[in-house]
Design a protein that fits this description.
Helix content is about 20%, strand content about 40%. The chain is elongated and about 60 Å long.
Length: about 210
């Protein structure tokens, strides 16, 4: 019988993973000055359950190598047809700060979807941000309560992305899905959600997404 880690790794299959957080996205500038979209793609030292009994946390320093070496894009909804910026072009700035992976996108005034996204941020219609990555260095820990912790120590970053929806709607945190920052390892005690059913659905959707 597969362990939960083996099941997770088989489902992911070495393909690009995505995480989404609810974060503060800001639309800065305007009134004749350059306009920027700023936010965070990831938050450090906050655990989220990405699989049944598997928690994940991103450690500071995980992005330092990749933001200095990789050719990273900013996309809208992870769609390569909607490029918002690129670090090698100087239109996307990436850094690690005390919160996590910070980004700053120079709005292209000649592209309608970039202007539309900026307007949506001003209205508060879009509040979530995501990043696409592959793990380069990770650490797994078996914990006394039977759960496992996956620590992302170093990753290869492909893109950061303001998103309309998380990858899957309806679950707290999931592989390639929404990453909700929590304090410590908070669980939803007494939740009325069918947790087992939600996890089964999560696995099925994960497998379908990875096959696309």
């Amino acid at each position: 019988m597969e362990t939960r880690r083996q099941e997770f790794e088989r489902a992911v299959g070495g393909q690009i993973e995505r995480r989404t957080i609810v974060t503060e996205l800001r639309a800065d500038g305007g009134d004749g000055s350059p306009r920027f979209i700023t936010g965070h793609g990831a938050v450090f030292d906050q655990e989220a359950e990405i699989w049944d009994g598997i928690y994940e946390v991103v450690r500071a320093g995980a992005f330092l190598d990749t933001i200095n070496q990789a050719d990273v894009r900013a996309l809208f909804n992870h769609n390569p047809d909607y490029v918002l910026g690129r670090n090698r072009a100087g239109t996307l700035q990436l850094s690690e700060d005390e919160i996590g992976l910070a980004y700053r996108i120079l709005v292209n005034e000649d592209v309608s979807y970039a202007r539309d996204l900026y307007a949506s941020l001003l209205r508060g219609d879009i509040t979530q941000s995501s990043y696409a990555f592959l793990p380069v260095q990770q650490r797994w820990t078996d914990r006394e309560d039977g759960t496992q912790l996956r620590e992302l120590l170093r990753v290869q970053l492909f893109d950061v992305s303001p998103v309309t929806y998380p990858a899957f709607v309806g679950a707290d945190s999931q592989a390639r899905g929404i990453f909700v920052p929590t304090s410590g390892r908070a669980r939803q005690e007494g939740a009325t959600v069918d947790r087992a059913g939600a996890l089964r659905s999560r696995r099925a959707r994960l497998a379908l997404t990875l096959r696309k």
